[in-house]
Amino acid sequence: MAEAHQAVGFQFTVRPDGVDLRLSQEVIKNIYLSGVTAWKKRAIQFKNGVLAGVYPASPSSWLIVVIAMMSSLYIRIDPSLGMIDAIKDNLPRDCMSVQTRAVLSAILFATGLWLFLIYLLRYTLKALLSYHGWIFESHGKMSTSTKVWLVRILVKMFSGRRPLLYSFQASLPRLPVPSLDDTIQRYLDSVRPLLDSDQYDQMEILANDFKDSKAAQLQRYLMLKSWWATNYVSDWWEEYIYLRGRSPIMVNSNFYIMDLLYVTPTHRQAARAGNVVHAMLKYRRKLERGEHAPVMALGTVPMCSSQMERMFNTTRIPGIETGQQLFRSAKFNIVQHLTDRKHLVVYHKGRFFQVWLYTGGRHLLPSELETQFQRILNDTSEPQPGELKLAALTAGNRVPWARARIKYFGQGVNRVSLDAIESAAFFLTLDDEPQGYDPAKTDSLDSYAKSLLHGNCYDRWFDKSFTLISYPNGKMGINAEHSWADAPIVGHMWEYVLATDCFQLGYTEEGHCKGDVNKGLPHPTRLQWQIQKECQGVIETSYRSAKQIADDVDFHAYLFSDFGKGLIKKCRTSPDAFIQLALQLAQFRDQGVFCLTYESSMTRMFRDGRTETVRSCTSEAVAFVRAMEDTSATRLGLFRKAADTHQNMYRLAMTGSGIDRHLFCLYIVSKYLGVDSPFLKKVLSEPWKLSTSQTPQQQLNLVDITKFPKYVGAGGGFGPVADDGYGVSYIIVGENLITFHISCKFSSADTDSCRFSQNIQKAMLDIQGLFKAENDKKMVELGTHVQLENGKKHI
């Protein structure tokens, strides 16, 4: 009852002699501190907003310009070429003295000049960032133009103050619209190895007919959008690829990220969750204030940070719109982003709890969060009717969930409880089955991956921007919704959280969070539900649908430790190209045919950029794979040629000259205009039987993995894209480890995740063997040469 009394700010009793008013000093104090914290937060956000808004200049530079203009009044030099006098003449004379008008006109002119200089600097920086010649140059070589560009951009970016997270947003260039001829030709080149002569001729006819008839009109509209919008792809990509989808997002869209591979800082579930949640709150505070350093490619070129804005306090809301009404106005899925949310919702054994994250105007300390989570773990109450599998609604088909949300969760306690979930900072599941990597169990990573990807289909809120999952053995993980951002964004936050958890916050010798235990905190609050029988039937239907999807996922994750990035780079080739060609070789050995292959590339060097597709199955890759199967003597040369082609395609995708986003946007414009294009229909209907992605690590470099080699993550993965294909996520960990996350479906007789992983491993070793054989040959030749030279000297 003590908590209930503390929750009351004041009490009053009506007496015959008046009203007896009693205030709770503790609550009033907390209210006061919360208000002070809120005003401090607004002030810091305003300050950082100004700093980012005027970057690369600084507010103090305005004062310098004003002083310079004011000085001109006394030395009788007019640097404004008469503009100060013109401003002075237009100021009111009756209420200002001559001196006042002179000073004010100088300040106004100085302010205008300062703003002009800011925009000049910003557009100069944008022009410099539009240069991408550096990315196409060979490793270790740099042209004169790139050296000049590098010097200029370094001077522009680092001669001023330290940039904030959003300092470069206004200076990032817009994503360019590629030329029609280039896109269509690159597309035809990409499908040439996958089609026979007749099929290719037919595709070429469709492409040429499209280019000669409808393409120019669609391209003009696309150019118009690129001039008007900050990015001609991203809003349509989010809407039509993610939000208009009707199928379940569990497995089909959401992805996961694992915990540290070898290290578990504590085996106490509540303590680990306390530290991790506190680290997330620290990250969120820096994010809201824009205090994170911007991500830089090669430490020089800034990446777009706009996706980070919706990391917290974000939920995907289902809509009832159907595919047949794709381009009509109605209720669609939306991404709801709120600000300043001060609670999270915790799921444990079928119960939902609301936990406040602030007290007295500050974040809860790790020890306080541990106490709250332990209280939930100790709670023995039973789920309410329909509560156990309620989250299955977010795992099943979107339309039934949208209708149920309107019908059963639109009012009363259900509305209040659902609002608590959807407005929470994020969602936390305290799981009751241990997971994690165990070298003694060959399938430990498989079980861990499936738990993160879909769990029991009702113990993750798949609509939240991310669900944090805590296991009884102290392991953690994340299931992330995909529409609001891509995997590197969540990975950026997760790297910060793990480094903060292990190297800043730490634990006591007993494994608890450090700090005093505050037992006076109000207990977590159970969310209340009144779920009707009819609604329980909808929940059960969604659960069965989701469970069928989950049970069909064939997943295998494994660690490739024979060699890693270090050895590959010694072979003077790109690690990504090496792995992609190994995947092509493994795919051919596994299926006996080549297939359309998707590799995700980022376009964040442009404003609001997200991803582009690299079509990895090239003619050069096919020639290399066939040579490997024929044991041709030209295998190594063909590998180098295929790797160079892949690298060039990846660079084109990164610099806005990809194929698929351009064609996708042309298709969207054609649908808006009611223009029928057999070519675009054919392109957009092609299945990606091999979908691949590399998740970057060490974005923040907070942990020196050469000193702490055990503090590395296992990366993450996603579900299969095609019913009869594979999904492969790979993570290059340090110099000597590569992790693979492979998914497919049990319902397909043609695929097997374990078999495919074996083919990948063999392909990696076979390609490495080519370089080893070449190196051995050089050593033999060198030895023979030395022997000949020694023989000549002896003679």
UniProtKB/TrEMBL annotation:
<dbReference type="GO" id="GO:0097009">
    <property type="term" value="P:energy homeostasis"/>
</dbReference>
<dbReference type="GO" id="GO:0009617">
    <property type="term" value="P:response to bacterium"/>
</dbReference>
<protein>
    <recommendedName>
        <fullName>Carnitine O-palmitoyltransferase 1, muscle isoform</fullName>
        <ecNumber>2.3.1.21</ecNumber>
    </recommendedName>
</protein>
<comment type="pathway">
    <text>Lipid metabolism; fatty acid beta-oxidation.</text>
</comment>
<dbReference type="InterPro" id="IPR042231">
    <property type="entry name" value="Cho/carn_acyl_trans_2"/>
</dbReference>
<keyword id="KW-0012">Acyltransferase</keyword>
<dbReference type="Pfam" id="PF16484">
    <property type="entry name" value="CPT_N"/>
</dbReference>
<keyword id="KW-1133">Transmembrane helix</keyword>
<dbReference type="InterPro" id="IPR032476">
    <property type="entry name" value="CPT_N"/>
</dbReference>
<keyword id="KW-0812">Transmembrane</keyword>
<dbReference type="Pfam" id="PF00755">
    <property type="entry name" value="Carn_acyltransf"/>
</dbReference>
<feature type="domain" description="Carnitine O-palmitoyltransferase N-terminal">
    <location>
        <begin position="1"/>
        <end position="47"/>
    </location>
</feature>
<keyword id="KW-0813">Transport</keyword>
<keyword id="KW-0808">Transferase</keyword>
<comment type="function">
    <text>Catalyzes the transfer of the acyl group of long-chain fatty acid-CoA conjugates onto carnitine, an essential step for the mitochondrial uptake of long-chain fatty acids and their subsequent beta-oxidation in the mitochondrion.</text>
</comment>
<keyword id="KW-0276">Fatty acid metabolism</keyword>
<comment type="similarity">
    <text>Belongs to the carnitine/choline acetyltransferase family.</text>
</comment>
<dbReference type="GO" id="GO:0015909">
    <property type="term" value="P:long-chain fatty acid transport"/>
</dbReference>
<keyword id="KW-0443">Lipid metabolism</keyword>
<dbReference type="InterPro" id="IPR000542">
    <property type="entry name" value="Carn_acyl_trans"/>
</dbReference>
<dbReference type="GO" id="GO:0061959">
    <property type="term" value="P:response to (R)-carnitine"/>
</dbReference>
<dbReference type="GO" id="GO:0006635">
    <property type="term" value="P:fatty acid beta-oxidation"/>
</dbReference>
<dbReference type="GO" id="GO:0009437">
    <property type="term" value="P:carnitine metabolic process"/>
</dbReference>
<dbReference type="InterPro" id="IPR023213">
    <property type="entry name" value="CAT-like_dom_sf"/>
</dbReference>
<feature type="active site" description="Proton acceptor">
    <location>
        <position position="482"/>
    </location>
</feature>
<feature type="transmembrane region" description="Helical">
    <location>
        <begin position="98"/>
        <end position="121"/>
    </location>
</feature>
<dbReference type="GO" id="GO:0004095">
    <property type="term" value="F:carnitine O-palmitoyltransferase activity"/>
</dbReference>
<keyword id="KW-1000">Mitochondrion outer membrane</keyword>
<feature type="transmembrane region" description="Helical">
    <location>
        <begin position="60"/>
        <end position="77"/>
    </location>
</feature>
<feature type="domain" description="Choline/carnitine acyltransferase">
    <location>
        <begin position="175"/>
        <end position="762"/>
    </location>
</feature>
<keyword id="KW-0472">Membrane</keyword>
<dbReference type="InterPro" id="IPR039551">
    <property type="entry name" value="Cho/carn_acyl_trans"/>
</dbReference>
<dbReference type="GO" id="GO:0005741">
    <property type="term" value="C:mitochondrial outer membrane"/>
</dbReference>
<keyword id="KW-0496">Mitochondrion</keyword>
